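Forgive a beginner's question, but might I ask you for the amino acids of a protein and the tokens describing how it folds?
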Amino acid sequence: MVLSKPKLAGNIMKKWHNFLNEVKKKRKTIACIICVNEGDKVLVIKRSKDEDTKQGHWDLPGGHVDDDDKSIEAAALRELEEETGLTSSKKDLIYVDKVTTGDADKYFYTTTKWSGTIKFQENPKTGVIEHNDSKWVSIEDVKDDKSLELRTFPAYLLDRAMEKLS
């Protein structure tokens, strides 16, 4: 079968646009906060059924760094407030680690200082309530084999956060 010139040109243009879209893709930058309470327990929040991915999985407060954020720490603080209603300050964050995955660079911070009461509200940009439950868990609870399928972060980060806090 011989393609007509318009169809051939259309296929070439489609391939060119696909190529350009691939080139334009940028890595995501994500910022998360490990909140540790007086009992050395960590705050985890459960992703709601309205979330795009990993519904029902337990996560740390955090999310994408937006163009409006002045720093990765500012993004982490914004995400903490958006997702939990808790507030903290940049001076109270301690850098823990950076984890690189196939499409993202994830920065983790820890803190023992925050204020507020945990409440879940709509994401101001999407209107979606991203999380619908919270709990304070021990590191041992997170490392339990049963939790492996239900969490979105590596457990070793919690050990590293505790080391940074001591």
